[in-house]
Amino acid sequence: MPEVFVEGLEDNARQSMVDLLNETLSDTIAMTLAVKQAHWNLKGQGFIGVHELLDDVAGRLREASDLMAERAVILGGIAKGTAEEVALDSKVEAYPLDITDIEDHVRALTDRFKAFGKTLRKGIEAAGEAGDDDTEDLLTEVSRAADKDAWFIGANSPKSK
Hints:
By secondary structure, this protein is an all-alpha fold. Helix content is 73%, strand content 0%. The longest helix has 31 residues, at 11-41.
């Protein structure tokens, strides 16, 4: 059994948080891959700005994944970030492979970021109820970044006013 590096959390709360972190890790990895799919394939007016923005967004998501995985291990769990686990556990809607227009990518990513933010807020609530302030804080940090990235990406839409 892996060592636990946290005192003051009940075993059931700790295990619940490991499960939550792994579920959120899967979603975060799936979001990273969706962002990179768009980054590689988008075309149209404003290409370079959106292309570079998506690299920054993917970097923030990778950092968030790292924080979640490390927290799961700190709590005595195993971080589950393989492609197989992500495919099984992620609730992120599959990203379309047949789009290239910037507007289509902006809409697809914005919709996914909004759903991701909603999932994160549910996780924040669950962490608070479990008494794990540190996981709650970690997910709050990721939620703020996801909301900001939804805005940054979505603001590239000509329909965004």
